[in-house]
Structures are given as structure tokens and as C-alpha cells.
């Protein structure tokens, strides 16, 4: 299963658990746990905000990115597609903080610019991977399908897309990782989220606050990545899924 | 039945017009296998693809069972023609069952009927449906994939099957096996088959008719034996190989080359009786058989002349025998192996059926060279 | 426009920040190469170890950088280095591990077994084989990993401005807090240009360092971004 493919051995899990326990004990000793627990309410509220940002911007990135990648892979787009992909590649080099900053200079501060910035930062891996995945379908499958009497749309849905699914999902996974990773910065341009606790904690030099923000953020990121991994494992048909 | 009338395909390229297929005229009878043969770029694949309109002819007509293919929507036409490509092209995202059911589903078959058909087809190609229906292509060997590819093409029971170098991607050892299986299946199903190959040996083995192409032209359309015996020009003679007469050995069975039947003797026959028999019939060799007719040895006149005793005492052992259903290539091969110029032949029950000799074989093959081409054999 | 004027007037400051930025990334990535490449080579010996190390490195990548800072600061504060240069360098070091280790591991394990066999047959020791055959063949892929690490970490260093590490991110943060679009755009532009320049520059270097015998004609080297880090 998905878990077995990423973890290797029960002793790893045991070791991890022991380390976490030891850290926990040390934290309790240092009074850190109480300091963090102070912010329980904030954590709950801000986590919700955080997840909303991720869900909306990520969802939009998938909804727009996948069809865009599909469209770019079509034969009549062949020449233009390469140029567009190069431009997108260039765009993906831009650091995510800069993307959010530019979003702010365009749209001001608040939730909308934050969502826009996050969307822009996560779009590129999805488009790129969908495009590469579709182009990567060996042409002889399409020849066989045409020769059997399938119509272009049937070939697209029955042959091309399923065979591109694995690579597309890898792109979605990367994109969501970037998204969840950039979301804390949304606070800086007025978008809310767990970043509030982290940045304020740094400004006020309060470790408790910092951790109250940092730990849930890290946990959420790990969780989202894990969830996408599991979804991709089950959704991609066994025949085209190297992991199954 | 497939009929091509003046079919031509011309491409416009920056370098000028390229005629990939030039006024092709041929007719493949119902239930026959026709192999399109020729070097790379000769137009054989182009011609094949014009039949199911993957390539549209520039001019000319193609008729399948009397119906003009131009009249049909190309997509619907293709659903009535089986198509197998060299790389096989089993869709990796579908199970074997789903792959085989693609065309039936496109044609609107009831799902259960389609699955039933898939199951039957797998049994026909010697793959246990219980084991293989739910497998994915990546879980099959190359040979198994190839067979499923053919099953998929036959799923909707099309009258015509088109194949583009279907056995090319398989290793030579498995290829022989799969070719034999295909021939066996074809004998049963009797589809009209057209397939492209670049291998003369494959064509000679599989085809009822061979169509040789060069630079877009159909150079010769004949049965394999005719092709080998009477190549229409030097190019074809070169293409089939300077050993073409040896290739013909594969096509003829020992039974066709048997010498006229001569009397045999049994173990107890006295030698002078045997020698008299040999003189009477002008034989130099006589076969010693047991009461039921099984060969036990032979007597050579030159060796036993002047000796006395019974046949059994002086008989020499046969180095080997051939069966009358073996091909001449096997017979000649055995003759070389044992350094003899003749062989004793046996029938299915192991009873002596006659002799076959190198001279007799050469004379048989030579007959066609002396006869005009095209005479039915 | 105004932004251009701003840039013109503040070139020294921009230069200063750029040096800060490049120094953090440069030092950290260099250290990461020194740790990552040997680790990558070492884990080719043991599949189990490889799985664990790669999994841990991937886990680290999933953690948003600001969160990592948030966790590191209290810890490093214990030795009085909570904010500033050190946490930034450590974070960049950690984030560079996955691309470098994974690329090294992949490159070395993918060396054609036939080549390894030939080297052994000729009488090379394991170390010689490593040095003369496997590593030179692995360099293009390792360099690709270094490139990914650098580009990602230019972004992360921009964020490190919030923990007092300076760098070009300072323009962005001031631009946001002072609602000064000139500083904002200057910062965004500067960081972006730096990232793009580093990408192309390292691509050129990657090409130069590839042994002549296995160079392919110039083509767009696809950037594998499966482990692309977080902000």
C-alpha cells in the first residue's frame, strides 16, 4: 500500500515515535507545552482560514491548470505550446514571496490577492506536468485507437488522459506542496492564516507563539502531502500506476 | 473479399510530389491471407492504411465485400475492420478484458455479450480467461500481449483483418510459435487477412498470396511458390533471395515427391529371389519390411549381388526416415546429415510409403521452371 | 517610472542586499554539497538506508520554511543565535539536502551496470571506479540537483528576511509594511532576476562540467520538480 512504499520497516516508525515522545517530555519540562496551549483558540480559527486559502487557491489551480495543460498538448497548439511552456518555466523560478508581493501590488491587501497569489504560484507545476503527461502518451496507442474506430474525444478520454494521469497527479502533488508551503506568507498581505502566529511570534520574540503557528503549519503540510499521495495511489488505474 | 482499383496516394512535399502508392490493383479472395511485402518505403504500409482510411487515397476505389469504402464514415468503417499494429498498442490503462471489449462497446453490444466474447476469444488464443481477463498489459509477456492484440482485433467478428508487421516485435523463437498459432486459428476462422511484412520467409510461410511492392508500385501478385519459381523481374529475384529454390523446399511436402511405388521384400525372402525382383523392376535399392509393413532395413543390389542367404541376414540399417507429411526441406536436411542421396518415407502409422531422392526432388521443383508461370499447382 | 528611479538611487543598498542574499545561499548550498553528495553516494550501498534518508529529506521539504524558522528560533535562541544569519543558513542547508542527495543517489545508482563491470574487470578498486567513472558520469544530474536547490533557496532566503537575515527580501518586506510599491517591485524583481540568472548560470556550469564524451547538444534541460520546496 501507499504507506509501505514510503516507510521501510517498523523500527523506523518506532524510532520516530520514541523521538517525538522524548521531545514532548522535554517540551513539557520547559513549560513550552503550556505556552503553546495558550493559543488553542487562535490555532483552531487560523487553521480553518489557512485550509480555506489552500483549498480555494489549490482547487482553482487544478480546475484551470489541468484543462490548460490538456489544451496546450493538442497537435494544433504544437508550436505555440513550447514557447508558452518556456515562459511558464521562467515564471516558476520566481520566488513565492515575490509572487505574493506582486499580487499585492496588483490587487491590494486581503484574502483575494492572497488567493490569487497562491493560485499563481501553484498553477505552473500542474500545467507543466499535465502537458508533459499528455505528450508522453506513446503515439502508437493513439494510432491503435484510431485504427479501431474510436473518435477523437473517445481517444482523449479513454486512452490519452488515463495514461497521463500518473504524471498529472505528480504535478498536482508538487503544486499543493508549494501552495501549503506558501500559505503562511498570506498573512503578510492580509490573507490571514497560521502565518499570523508565526510572524507575530517572531516580532514579539515569543517562542510559544512561534511554535503555536509553526507546528500546526508543518503538520498541515505533511498531512496534505500524505493525503494527495494516497488519493493519487488509488485514483490512478492500476495498469498505469507504477506504484501498484 | 478486398478489392483495390487503381488506388493511388500522392503526397505534396517541399521537394515535390511523392507518389507513395501508384495505381495499385489487386484482389484478395475471401478467407485468404495476403502478405504485402517489400523494402522500406515501398508503399506497402501506405496501401494497408488506405483500406481502413487511416490514410485517404488520392484516387482510386477500395471495395470490401463489394461495398465501396468511400461511402462510409471512416470511423464507423474502422469498427468493422480488425487492426493490429507492430507495437501491439494494448491500452495500459485497461485490463485485458476491457481492451478486448473496446470495439464491441463502440458498436453498442450488450456488455455481458461483449464480456462473454472476450472470454471465448482468450480461450481461442490459449490464455486461460480466469487468469488473464483481469490482468493489465504490463503484467503480460510480449508474446501474450501480441496474442491479446489479435484477439482484440477479432472481438467484433470483422470480416477483414489488417495487420502491420504484427509479429515484428517478438523474438524469433516465439515468433515461429505465434505464427503457427495464427495459421491454425486462421484455418478455423477464415477471415480475409492482409498483412504487411518485410520478411520473405514469413511471407512464404504465412501467405496464400504475396504482393510485392517497390517504390510505390505493385510489382508482382502471386502465390508464394509462383513468386519463388517465377519472379517477375530482377529486383524481385534479388528480394526473394538467391536461395529461392531452397525456400520452395518448405512449401512442398515429401508426399508430392515420392518415387513411383516399388515392391518390397520381407525378412525371410531368399536373396536370389530378392535380386531377381530388383532386376525385374530396375531397382537398385529394395526395402525390407516386417509383415505389417514397417521398414526394417534395406538391401543394395551392388552389395548383395552374388551373396546367398535371406534378406534378414544381409540387410543394412536405415540411417533415418522421413514422414510423408514433412516438408522437403526437412527431407533434404536429413539426407545431408546422413550423407545419403535418398530417404525412406513412412506414413502416419509408421508403415513404409516409398522413397524420395535428391534427384527426384530436383526434378519436381524443376518442373515449374519448365512450365509457364501461373499454372495452378 | 518611479520604481526605476528608486532603483537608480539605491543601487548601493541593492548591491549590499544582493551580496547578503548570495552569501547565505552560496555558503549554505556549498555546505549542502559537501554533506549531501557523500550521503547520496553512501546510501547507494543500502536500499533500506536509502529509503529512510530520502523519506526524511522529503519530509523536511514538505515543511513550510517559515514554519521551520518558527521551530528553529527558540532552539537556536538557547545559544544566542536565534535570529539572523545562522538560522537562515541552517534552513537553506536542510532544504538543499533532498535535491542534492536524491539526484546524487539516482545518478550513481543509474550508472549502467555494464560500466561498473568493465571497471571491475579492468582491475579498478571501488574507490577508483567511483572517482574515475561513476562520479564524472553522475555530475550532470548532481549539478541539476544543485541548480534546483539554489533556485528554491533563493526564494527561501527572501523569506529569511523576516528572521533578521537581511537579503533582498528586505525590500519586499519593507514594501509590504510601508505600502511602498517601489520597494516591493524592486525586491520582487531583484529576487526573480537573481533566481533566473542563477538558474541559467548554473545550467551553463552544468554543461561545462559534463564530461565531453557524454555531452548532448544544447537542449532545454527539463527541470524535475517533484520535490520542489515550499515557501
Report on this model:
The complex is a heterotrimer of chains A (244), B (377) and C (231). Chain A has 244 residues and is mainly α. Chain A has 2 domains: 1-30; 39-240, MetI-like fold (Orthogonal Bundle). In chain A, 81% of the residues lie in helices and 0% in strands. Chain B has a 6-stranded mixed beta sheet with strand order 6-7-8-3-9-10, with helices on both faces. In chain B, strands 2-1-4-5 form a 4-stranded antiparallel beta sheet. Chain B folds into 2 domains: 2-251, Rossmann fold (3-Layer(aba) Sandwich); 255-364, CBS-domain (Roll). Chain B is elongated. Chain C is mainly α. Chain C has helices at residues 2-9, 11-42, 47-62, 65-77, 85-109, 113-122, 126-160, 169-177, 181-209. Chains in contact: A-B, A-C. The A-B interface holds A 138, 140-141, 143-151, 154, 158-159, 162-163, 165, 237-240 and B 52, 54, 75-81, 83, 85-89, 91-95, 102-103, 106, 136-138, 152-153, 162.
Q: What structural class do helix, strand and pairing data of chain C support?
A: mainly alpha
List the uncertain runs of chain C: 219-231
**Largest interface, C-beta closer than 8 angstroms, per-chain residues:** A-C, 54 and 55 residues
Note poorly predicted spans of chain A.
1-7
What is the oligomer described by this structure? heterotrimer
Fill in the CATH topology of the largest domain in chain A.
Answer: MetI-like fold
Helix content of chain A: over 70%
Q: What share of residues are in beta strands of chain A?
A: under 5%
| Helix count from the secondary structure assignment of chain A | 11
> How many alpha or pi helices of chain C?
9
